Amino acid sequence: MSGLESLTELRLLDIHVTESGFQPVLSLKGLKRIVTNNTFTTYDFAELNIFRPDIECEYAAPYRIREIEYFKCKKCGAYKMEFSGNDLQRRTFCPNCNKKKVIELTERFTEIKRKIAAGNKV
Ligand SMILES: [Zn+2]
Q: Are 116 and 122 spatial neighbours (Cβ–Cβ below 8 Å)?
């Protein structure tokens, strides 16, 4: 395991982790960046956000916005928000047309973080 201490970037693109989430890598002190395809649960990403805020990961936040044509809302033209967590049935929502859902999911992430910080399993 000692060799992993110097690992700075981890690519977990097609890995499907069920039980432990990011737990095995949270202690890798040299780790600066994790690249994933949103293949972890919201809980896992919230945990990463709380315990390792120094690790750069696009999904360690309630959502990310990808400014590419594919993610443009067909109704209003705004870029859709992609919410973190493969436990969500649908993950992309327009900030204008799906305002209610966007608020709900942003609050969900905050609530999960709050519970993790309080030491409760979600
Ligand atoms: Zn829209």
A: yes
Element containing residue 22 per DSSP (H, E)? none
In 3D, which of 22, 67, 27 has the Cα closest to residue 49? 22
Ligand 1 center–CA 98 separation, angstroms? 7
Return all residues near 77 (Cβ < 8 A) that are at least 6 apart. none
Average pLDDT score, the chain: 91
- Distance (angstroms) between ligand 1 centre and the Cα of 60 equals 24
- Ion ligand 1 — residues with CB < 5 Å: 73, 75-76, 94, 96-97
64-75 pLDDT, tens digit each = 998 999 999 999
Q: What is the distance between the alpha carbons of residues 84 and 50, in angstroms, rounded to a whole number?
A: 14
Q: How do 81-83 and 63-65 pair as beta strands?
A: antiparallel
Tens-digit pLDDT profile for residues 14-50: 666 667 889 888 989 999 999 999 999 999 999 999 9
Task: Report which of residues 28 and 121 the model is more confident about.
Answer: 28
